[in-house]
Structures are given as C-alpha cells and as structure tokens.
Amino acid sequence: MNKRHLVDSLSLSRIIFGILFAGSVFYLNGNLIIIFVIYFFAVLSDVLDGKLARRYKIDNKNKGAKVDVLSDFAFIMLSSFALCYVNLLPFWFLIIITLKLMEFFKTSSEGLEYEKFGTLVALMFYALPGIIVLFNFFKIPIIINLMLCIFITVCAIISSGLRIIHKRRN
C-alpha cells in the first residue's frame, strides 16, 4: 500500500467508526466503554492521518485533504445523528453542521483553505459527541447539551462571517 492510500484509508476509517458509534448508541443502550473506544479510535485515526500526511509531505490541498474533511464530516454527522435520535442533541444542530461544511467548501476556492477559528469550530463539532456521551453518563442535565449546541452554533456563525469577510478582502 502506498503512502497516499494509507493516509486515505485512515481517513475513510472514520466513516466506519461513525457507523459503529451510531450503532452502539442505538443498540447497546449507551454502553459507555464501547462508545468511548470507538470514539477514541476515530480521533486516533484523525490524528494519525494528519501526522502521516505531514511526515510524507502529502499536499493538504489535494484530493486526500477532501477525503479527510468528508470523513470527518461523516463521523460528526453519524455520531451527532445517533445522539439526536436518542434526544441528547437537537435535530437543528445537524443542519448547522451541514451548512458549515457547505460554507467551507464554497469559500475554499483553490484547494481547501483553513483558518484558525474555523478549525476550532470543527474541533468543537468533533468533540461534542464524546462530551455528550460523558454528560449523559454522569447524568448532567440535558439543558447543558442544548447550551453547548447554541454556543457552538454562535461560534460557527462568527467563523463563517470572518471567513466571508476574509474572502471578500482577497
């Protein structure tokens, strides 16, 4: 297997981890250990594909970077959908995630273009399923989940505004 395929395989594994995460939420009555093992491996695959892409000097503006972003999106959507299904996240949050991804691709003219605040928002999207599972395990009131979703949504709106302003200046 060549280096590009290894990196892409790690990225694509997040789709499988997303399916496994959702399945464990749906069918295993929220078994925290299994859900967290799956979540851990999804995060690990994301860290490793990034490290390997940098080590092998694989350009982040090519098709591989799109595979990475779409795999992240798939994991985030699958895990968030599962949490919506069991009423731990509001459904409208899935729309926010989708709109943010569409905005990212629409405003990335030549290859993918990252900016710091947008990357932070993406990390929040990525971390939220793990946080929600922990909150549920520790019986933290569900209103906190909603407050987190609202906070992340506000950050996403600010990030989009900054990105659009930046694109207009260039």
From TrEMBL:
It holds the Pfam family CDP-OH_P_transf. GO terms for molecular function: phosphotransferase activity, for other substituted phosphate groups. GO terms for cellular component: membrane. The keyword Transmembrane applies. This is CDP-diacylglycerol--glycerol-3-phosphate 3-phosphatidyltransferase. The keyword Ion transport does not apply. It comes from the Archaea. Keywords: Membrane, Transmembrane, Transmembrane helix. The chain crosses the membrane at residues 12-42, 73-97, 117-137, 143-165. InterPro entries: CDP-OH_P_trans, CDP-OH_PTrfase_TM_dom. GO terms for biological process: phospholipid biosynthetic process.
